Amino acid sequence: MKSVLYVSFYFLCLSCCIGQKNRPFGYQIGFQTSKLVAHNSRFAFKPKGFGYFIDGSIYYQTTGRKLWEKIYHFPRYGLQLKYLYLGQPNELLGRAFGIYPFFDFTIKQNRNSSFSFLIGCGLAYVNKPYDIKINPFQNAIGSYWNNITTFQFRWNINQNKAYGLYSVLALHHISNGAYKYPNLGLNFFSIGAGINSLPFRMKKNDLVDSLHHTKWSFSILSGGAIKEAKIPGGPKYPIQMLGLDIGYEYRTFKSVRIGIEYEHHKLSSYFASHTEIKPNISSAWLEGLRLQIYGSHEWLVGPASIEVRMGYQVLNSGLLAGYPVFNKLIFQYQIKLPKSSPFYLTSGVALKTHYGVAEYIALIAGVRWQKTYH
């Protein structure tokens, strides 16, 4: 209980630092009741009861100074801190602390309320990961430091010009991307409510929303990740990837993309070469090869992009390869080369999952060419 009071006091102090004179900056303080879902039959424990989350945010309300702010109906972006009591059995799960940047997009609004979608991705510290001696049944999280990704639907109700209330329905995912085993991951569904300053959002601009041009783009993207063998504390093996895709911007700052991607998993090749499954090194190398196709949707938000992919591994060895269907959540930052050039340099992070279980977290970089027709 003391930890809850300390965290609440910290968020209250944080909110006091964001005064009304600093508009269009605002803050939020919220509480959520959460339920851990055992999304995989390999869970060594059965989640019981409910957990709770306390969060505090500082954010900036965009005002339409840039075109993308108007196209997305004046979203908010900021930083959220979160305290997570992970539920029962608490002696296995413990607590966590998260911090992540987020975007909060308006979906619909009227005079006194608005409906929005928030997406955030960052770091979480879990204080009771797997330990062979003191916590052997916690096989969902194997490391102290993890990724936390959240998707939240929010209904905001304006009380006056300065403050408002909101309710939230959310999904939170915590995992280390198989960097350290075990890593089934923790998936929480939660509901909650909170209070925010600066509740009013900018009004929708229908004229801006009608702007449209067609843009084709081509990307080359490479990356790498590290994955631990399926033994806690075992060796780690690299994953290499290279992909090509083409995108069509069907509406300003919103694109659909299709592509093909190559991955090589050293773990599968190493296993094949050392167990005599394959007769030579060359054939063992092929066991780690994966070729996959995908379709995706991308949102360009200023120099940043958020991309959600769904794909299928068409060339997929059965050796430590997992399910052929996969999802990827990708955050990138784009740097435009000289104004006369159609090329952009990109870098970012990609989280790949199979039915809710993370396979890896990769660092990525690439080059994009795009052509605009007015």
Explained architecture:
With 374 residues, this protein is mostly beta strands. It is 12% helix and 57% strand. It is built from 6 helices and 16 strands. The strands form 2 sheets. It has an 8-stranded antiparallel β-barrel with strand order 1-2-3-4-5-6-7-8. Strand 13 and strand 14 form a beta hairpin. The longest helix is centred in the N-terminal third of the chain and has 15 residues. It is flat, with a radius of gyration of 22 Å. The relative contact order is 0.12.
Number of helices: 6
Q: Within the largest sheet, what's the order of strands?
A: 1-2-3-4-5-6-7-8
**Averaged pLDDT:** 86
Shape by Cα distribution? flat
Radius of gyration: 22 Å
> Which structural class best describes the helix and strand composition?
mainly beta
Helix-strand pattern = HEEHEHEEEEEHEEEHHEEEEE
What are the salient characteristics of this protein?
mainly beta; eight-stranded antiparallel β-barrel; flat; 374 residues
Secondary-structure topology with pairs:
Elements: H1 2-16, E1 25-37, E2 51-61, H2 67-71, E3 76-85, H3 90-93, E4 95-109, E5 113-126, E6 145-158, E7 163-175, E8 186-197, H4 206-209, E9 214-228, E10 236-251, E11 254-265, H5 266-274, H6 281-287, E12 289-301, E13 304-316, E14 325-336, E15 343-354, E16 357-373
Antiparallel strand pairs: 1-2, 1-8, 2-3, 3-4, 4-5, 5-6, 6-7, 7-8, 9-10, 9-16, 10-11, 11-12, 12-13, 13-14, 14-15, 15-16
Helix pairs in contact: 5-6
